[in-house]
Design brief:
Chain B: It comes from Aliiglaciecola lipolytica E3. The complex is a heterodimer. By secondary structure, chain A is an all-alpha fold. Helix content of chain A is 80%, strand content 0%. The chains are: A mainly alpha, B alpha/beta. The structure holds adenosine-5'-triphosphate and magnesium ion.
């Protein structure tokens, strides 16, 4: 048992090292969310509700990067280079490769969240009761999982170069069109309807509900949609995995 | 009498990718330690055989067993190390970090230090993989193949792209490992490599094993040299010269296979003092294939 644990810790450590040594990963995952949040919540003056509202949506933005890039680009790359085959031929436990990536991704998304929360609390003047902070953090961390599945699907289907392009397009489109950067009420009606097809929209609505942002929200509806989306993504991930094994 | 256990056993093994038949019925029984070379041209099916043995590809029909277990089972994998033909390690991890990680997969691995020493990686163990030369990368891959202290090691074209010195270095490490009682199955395009390293050479051609022999038997078949030149002497005359075993014409060149190069050449020169573009080479693998596969049939 302790040998398996030891191996798993090393595996997770290796994932973290790979991520920390790649500036092209650090910037969009750790730098961009807090930079955008500071810009829109602090530097650009607006209504006093903005820092709270944006904390909910930028928190979703913060967890999306590590998941989509950490899985999409790195799995595609490691598959392309034959590293995944080498691991599958070695007696590592089958799921440990994915599990270690999940752990390292969760650590990165938590770190990204903590940075934004600190800026929100100390610089942007967001004041929330402690249980609300805790619930918000939990919500945001759970929000990582659908994006992990999206990253995995990209990683299993596309080659390394295509995966970089696709990951970036999805990352930016999901953020912009799901209302993570600019509140969705400011969008034209057609774009507001389109947002309902994006997990980013529903996840940020759930986070806004948790945070107690003003406005009517149907929590159960958003949770149901996210649950359905996650199940579909899970099935698609399993399909993409089996397809890449029998290429 | 007790037979020594099979390390790699195949019986009427077949593997197809869609309509492409990569392996067309192989029988194989590798027992005991030593170096076993699988020699074959591009597309012969060498990599397919290794991928099936690793459980990375499903076999289409027949039997394949690795140290008594089915390929791809944890039990089998624990006894195997491998260099895959086109597999690279993560660029951003150091050699030592990768060895440490791989060691943790196996029940009774060598220590990281011992592995670094055995593969002579001291000079670049703390460098990131990306920064290594081609030969250093191959040695790092070799280290991952052996760190688990496996009984069976597959090396799929381990020396392709290496210079002579790097190749010799790797050969030395491979020989050392075989001396410790391990079984090494390696593929190569170079007859010289197989002859230098292997205790047994299997020649694969279009998905079947066409010859299975010791290096000395193969050497016997490949004895002599190939004289290639442009000459006015006719095919019929060349064939009758001393030492000449076969003659072929390709374009403006005549290719003469001879077991007595000096004598054949001097006769050729006296017949045609103006022969041009003369080269003398070891017989090519294809020639040896040809003769060996005829011998086997
Ligand atoms: N994944 C695959 N899908 C379809 N065909 C394949 C696949 N892999 C190999 N083949 C085909 O199977 C045959 C054997 O290929 P294999 O890679 O086993 O040859 P090889 O002996 O290793 O060649 P090389 O010396 O070039 O590495 C070839 O005709 C090849 O085109
Ligand atoms: Mg090959």
């Amino acid at each position: 048992m302790s040998r398996i644990l030891h191996s798993f810790v090393l595996e997770t450590g290796a994932e973290l090292l790979k991520a920390l040594r790649a500036p092209e990963f650090i910037f969009p995952t750790l730098g961009m969310p807090v930079a955008f949040y500071s810009l829109f919540a602090i530097m650009i003056p607006g209504s006093s509700n903005n820092p709270d509202y944006l904390l909910a949506t930028y928190g979703v933005f913060a967890v999306m990067g590590p998941a989509i890039f950490g899985f999409g680009i790195s799995v595609a790359n490691e598959r392309d280079k034959g590293w995944l085959d080498l691991k599958l031929a070695a007696p590592s436990l089958g799921f440990s490769y994915i599990a270690a990536k999940v752990c390292s991704t969760l650590l990165f998304s938590s770190l990204s969240l903590v940075i934004i929360y600190l800026v929100a609390g100390f610089a942007a003047g967001v004041v929330l009761p402690q249980p609300t902070w805790a619930l918000l953090l939990t919500t945001h961390i759970l929000a990582t999982f659908p994006f992990i599945l999206i990253g995995l699907i990209i990683g299993f289907i596309f080659n390394a170069n295509a995966a970089i392009a696709i990951s970036n397009v999805i990352f930016l489109a999901f953020a912009a069109l799901g209302g993570l950067w600019i509140p969705i009420m400011l969008f034209p009606q057609s774009m507001q309807s389109f947002a309902h097809f994006l997990p980013t929209f529903h996840l940020s609505e759930i986070a806004l509900y948790v945070l107690g942002a003003p406005g009517e929200r149907d929590l159960n509806y958003h949770i149901l949609i996210i649950a359905i989306m996650s199940l579909v993504l899970l099935a698609a991930t399993a399909f993409a995995w089996s397809k890449q094994r029998n290429h | 009498m007790q037979q020594s256990p099979s390390i790699l056993y195949a019986s009427n093994l077949k593997k197809s990718y869609g309509t492409v038949e990569a392996i067309k019925g192989i029988n194989l029984n590798i027992q005991g330690s030593g170096v076993y070379a699988i020699l074959g041209q591009n597309g012969a099916g060498k990599t397919s055989l290794i991928k099936c043995a690793l459980g990375l590809e499903k076999i289409t029909s027949g039997t394949l067993q690795v140290i008594g277990s089915a390929p791809g089972t944890l039990q089998a994998k624990r006894q195997i190390g491998v260099i895959l033909q086109d597999s690279d390690l993560p660029d951003l991890l150091t050699v030592k970090e990768q060895i440490t990680l791989f060691a943790s997969y196996y029940p009774t691995p060598f220590s990281v230090e011992k592995t670094i020493e055995m593969c002579a990686l001291e000079d670049f163990a703390d460098k990131r993989y990306k920064k290594l030369s081609g030969g250093q990368k191959r040695r790092a891959q070799f280290a991952l193949a052996i760190v688990g202290n496996p009984q069976l090691i597959f090396l799929d074209e381990p020396t392709t792209g290496l210079d002579i010195e790097a190749r010799r270095n790797l050969w030395a490490v491979i020989r050392d490992f075989a001396k410790q009682g391990k079984t090494i199955v390696l593929t190569t395009h170079y007859l010289e490599e197989a002859e230098n390293l292997a205790d047994r050479i299997m020649i694969m051609n279009s998905g079947i094993i066409v010859a299975d022999a010791s290096p000395s038997e193969i050497q016997k078949q490949s004895k002599g040299s190939v004289i290639r030149c442009e000459t006015s002497t006719s095919y019929e005359v060349l064939q009758k010269l001393t030492g000449v075993s076969s003659v072929s014409i390709s374009g403006r060149f005549s290719e003469i296979h001879s077991t007595d190069v000096n004598q054949s050449l001097s006769e050729m020169l006296s017949l045609d003092p103006n022969l041009k573009d003369l080269t003398v080479n070891q017989p090519k693998l294809e020639d040896v294939f040809g003769r060996l596969s005829q011998g086997v049939k």
